Fold this sequence. Notes:
The structure holds 2 protein chains of 2 kinds.
Chain A: H1 14-20, E1 25-26, H2 27-38, E2 42-43, H3 46-49, E3 53-54, H4 62-70, E4 76-80, E5 83-87, H5 90-98, E6 109-112, E7 124-132, E8 142-145, E9 148-151, E10 157-162, E11 165-173, E12 176-185, E13 189-190, E14 193-195, H6 212-217, E15 223-227, H7 229-232, H8 243-247, E16 253-255, E17 263-265, E18 273-277, E19 280-281, E20 286-287, E21 292-293, E22 302-306, E23 320-325, E24 334-340, E25 344-353, E26 358-367, H9 371-374, H10 379-382, E27 385-398, E28 403-418, E29 422-440, E30 443-460, E31 466-486, E32 489-511, E33 514-517, E34 523-537, E35 542-556, E36 559-564, E37 575-581, E38 586-602, E39 606-617, E40 619-622, E41 633-636, E42 644-656, E43 661-678, E44 694-710, E45 715-730, E46 745-746, E47 751-762, E48 767-776, E49 780-781, E50 786-790, E51 793-797, E52 804-805, E53 809-819, E54 829-837, E55 845-853, E56 856-863, E57 869-877
Parallel strand pairs in A: 2-5, 6-12, 7-13, 7-14, 18-23
Antiparallel strand pairs in A: 1-3, 4-5, 7-10, 8-9, 8-11, 11-12, 15-22, 16-17, 18-19, 20-21, 22-23, 24-25, 24-57, 25-26, 26-27, 27-28, 28-29, 29-30, 30-31, 31-32, 32-33, 32-34, 34-35, 35-38, 36-37, 38-39, 39-42, 40-41, 42-43, 43-44, 44-45, 45-46, 45-47, 47-48, 48-53, 49-52, 50-51, 53-54, 54-57, 55-56
Chain B: H1 2-18, E1 21-25, E2 34-42, E3 49-55, E4 63-64, E5 69-74, E6 79-86, E7 89-92, E8 104-110, E9 116-119, E10 122-123, E11 130-132, E12 141-143, E13 146-148, H2 153-157, E14 160-162, E15 169-180, E16 184-187, E17 195-199, E18 211-215, H3 228-232, E19 251-253, E20 256-267, H4 270-283, E21 301-303, E22 309-325
Parallel strand pairs in B: 2-22, 17-18
Antiparallel strand pairs in B: 2-3, 3-4, 3-7, 5-6, 5-8, 6-7, 8-9, 8-10, 9-21, 11-14, 12-13, 13-19, 15-16, 15-17, 15-20, 20-22
Amino acid sequence: MNRRLIIFIVSIGTGVIIALFAQERKLEEYLNEIHDSIGHEFFYKKDWIDTLVVNPDRNKDYLSNISNSIANSGLEVFVKQGNIFIYPNKIEWERMNKVGNSTLDDTKYKRIGSPSEFHENGEYILTGRVSNKDDEVLQGAIIEIGGKSTISDKSGFYNVTLAPGNYTLNTHYVGLESDKINISFYSSDTLNTVLYESTQLLDEVVVSGENISMKLRDPLLGKSIIEISEIEKLPSFLGENDALKLVVNMPGVNTYGESSSYLNIRGGRNDQTLMMMNGVPIFAPGHMLGFFSVYNSDFASQINLYKGNIPSRYGIRSSSVFDVRMNRSADKDFEVNGGIGLIKTNLGLRKKLLDNKLDIHLGGRTTYSDWIFDIVSEEAFLKSSANFWDMNFSSQYDLNARNKFEFSYYHGHDRFNYADEVDYIWDASNAMLGWKHIINDDYIVNSELSYSNFDNRVNQYERFNGTRLTNGIDYFSVKNSVNANILKGETVLGVDLTFHNITPNSVAYEVDDFEVQEDEDIERIRNIDFYVDYLTNITEKLTLSAGIRLSNFDNLGPGEVNIYDNNQPRNTDSIIDVEQFEKGKSMSNYRTLEPRMGLSYNLNTHSFKLGYSRTNQFLHLISNTALVNPISVWKGSDSYIEPTTIDQWTVGYLRKMKGDYSFSSEIYFKDVDNLVEYRNGADLILNNDLEQEIVSAEGNTYGLEMGLSKNQGKLTGEISYTLSRAFTRVKPSPQFETINNGESYPDYTDRPHNVKLYLTYKMNKNWTISTNFNFHTGPPTNIPINIYEIDGVSIPYYRGRNQNRIPDYHRLDFSITYEYRIRKTKKLRDKWVFSVYNVYSRSNVTSMFFSMENNTPQLFQFVTIDQIIPTLTYQFKI
Amino acid sequence: MERDTSLFLGLISIIFVLFGCAKPVDLKSSREELIVVDAKLSNKIGGTKVRIYSKAEGESPNKSLKGCNIQIVDSENNTTFFYEISPGVYELEDTEFVGEFYQNYKLIIRDSLGNLIESSAETLYPPVEFEFKSEVVLKPVEVADGILINQRFYDIISKFELDKESNYYSRYTFKYSYLDFFTGLQEFVNLQNYSLFGCGNNCEKFNDSELNTFSLEDRDWQFFNKTAECLNIFNNPDGPTPSCEDVPMCCMKFNAYEVSFTITQERMPQNLFLFWEQASDLRSNDGLIFNTYPFSLKGNVSCETCDYEVVGYFGVVGINRYSKPLVL
């Protein structure tokens, strides 16, 4: 293509030409007149042409007049794709064309859409995705174009309706350099934007995906949106940067012990946090008994955490939501990334296809941890093995500007073999197919089909026979919603249809190679939910979020329900009848209404917030310990296990301080009803009549969370303190005995005092160091107060439930990262991460238990990790 | 489901090997005082005893509760008194007393401070008559330095012919014993505390290291048979015959001239069986997976006025014994 002056006049009306040829004036004025008259776009820097004047010659075309004007100024005129560029010299112009549109801010230009589809009076949709240099989608980026502005959503998407014409698209995101691109917009099309760290912030780090201004206005308390790049800055465990480990550093978030992947948020139990991958529930969020989470950080793009005010679009669980979006898109045509660590390795491929309309990402992780057992001298472990693998596939297809499709799939497999005697195997899958249809600026329709599965087997091999214990759960869902900008606000209306098929624990015996499977009582539950979320600015300072969710729950037949004598303890002897239900008949039905509301009063540098929400939980994890284990099973609400209801009130304060600091504080109180608790001596294993073991309890949970954060600069991080109390009380009933004499007692999630700190210091372009510290009061546990002997047999004596505590927990981790690539254009980007877990080798106790050791009673402390764990990991991206 | 629980423990121990461990903790420092009543009434002469002691706080040794006034009252208000034969140990004044079958008995204790400790009323049931369907032949292996026991209890129990009434609950204690020329009747040490709880068909079962259950049609319990350890010695026909030095837990030294195998049956009420079942549950908790949720197991004794906590059991059992000389 000729890069020099090209005489290029399309059609000019005579009258217009006359009007343009008048007396001498500033060149910029002249350019504006041409632009206003015939629509041509001119690109230049104002200070280049400030002093230049033009005296138009009516016998010449306007390009000649411009050329005359800039003669001897060092500037030249270039025409490209119908637009006119005024540039200092040829070299700069060539550089701009060589590197495309990504570097020269004032000169970026793109033609959007097809001129053949152009209709002068038509309206078309411009859509796109905003991401950072690490391909992470950016929620909350501000997009300005043609006098309109919009904000990118959780997937980084934005859309805006425009008439055809020439525009400048400005994209802003806190901590990143704003992007400006000039476009000629002909028809609906996609324009993705990548934002880079600004020159002055090149050495700095931005912690939160949400900027403080947005947080000040956001009426949803306890909400956090975290970009996945933050995870990579934290110390890793066995070389794995884990989304779960990141959120555990946040106030109000805990796990039970080190090897749990279930989040306990604000006193919520293991099953009360809705843990999701791409908006689809995950029923087994951990690998290797919880040491790793299922969230592959190569795919993760964003964490959405709701600790308090949960939007109405989320249901079925009652305490909180943890949703990791696994749709990181590629910013190059083809990318390879991977990592090699002590125990596992990972590899990922990304490719853009079909003229960048299709973006696919395939990757996986696997362990090679069996070697660890070879260095153990004990024979049983020499015969043992432990490993897992998982794979993710995600793709986004932009069919056109109005229709976008997304598909994601995950499968994970875990296996432990102990001494060739026991096999513990589980598989989990998760899939989602989504369709986003943009009707116009004001209406977007989202449809989603999703599936999730957990299948667990424990095989035991014996000399004479073997047993197999199985359990599992299947989840199917169809979701439809409409995002509408109506009633002076943003409204989301949706309907969810959800099915859970639950296979409880069942055992099979293998005798002479003939496997006899005991009957499985599959539980089928169905939810039909309707919801509305509404967000509006009531005044300039006051923002309201309001929502309501209507749930209709059915536990479906076939099945049978025991009818008990209401005045007798619920056991086999008090069954007075058994009611039979046919397939598809509702055995128990609950209809619930869940109002949710949040208010924020924003005074620019600080804001006050108020929230209330009601949530119901229809799915319960039945477990005989606080640490979820392979024989824990899911159970739907039924005639005796009513949905757990939580009413939560929250008050919050957020202050933006000088020097990129912010202070936040929230006080919450939860009133819990129909909490699942277990009677004294409950036997939950292989029990088909769980209602005989479960008692109904009520709880109250309250707490205070305070955090001081530094969000930008070389040093970033947060220090926080949390007071978190959770109490349970069994309701008096003639059908079951009370616990602790009907007194309130601490729940296993009770952690009175929590102090957390995480810091990242970016020393220079190559080196980053980070550390985190975590302290919390030990959780309640049960320790016998004494041991007595009857007839020569030692018997432990417990005074009451949860009357003792495990020793306090504290741990310090550290990591240092050396990153090679600092320039955007370098293809290979690799880094070395050296991390140290449990720096001062603290033996944190996970649980305490009593056991007979050689017929002598003994109390033990179960310590999951009692040593320092250094790890060196290599990661690369091409 | 004991096995399923142990499976998981095996898995957890893999993680222990990598990074963690289970560390013993001194339980004494966390002790709180308990008063324990360990009492039994039977149909045998001398088979009725009461022991009362205080489980100490902290690291103090257990203390016997002296000077108590103890009596047994039946449903017809007949009273039998105890006397203290040694500190905290009480026996019946009437040394010929034996319990009557189907009679209800209640234990009443008044301590030296005047507090009243009472048990619930318990019924004495006659022991279940058991006969062997076929001849039991016990053939231990003679070795140079003694005899090795290689007999599984299952081989003996499976020959039981028991009354199959549904509410049958018994505890069986197995002992190999021998009459030592110098020291008298000796029990085979490693089996002293081993017992099996038998119950009717379809009854609840339990097991732990000391307390195991079988039902009449049950076949599972055989795998928990303690003597299987000894039996395994002989499973390798090509291996050399072990000596007593190799496997002392399975061996008796030769000083004896009369060796016998004894089964003692204690027929018990259902409540006592349930007490042992609950005790077994508490003893088998492992801290990661509870077979049951921990709870206060107080037994069948209580005190309204005591300012200390009272636990224990007044067991009423019908006893019979079967003894079989060992064929050498």
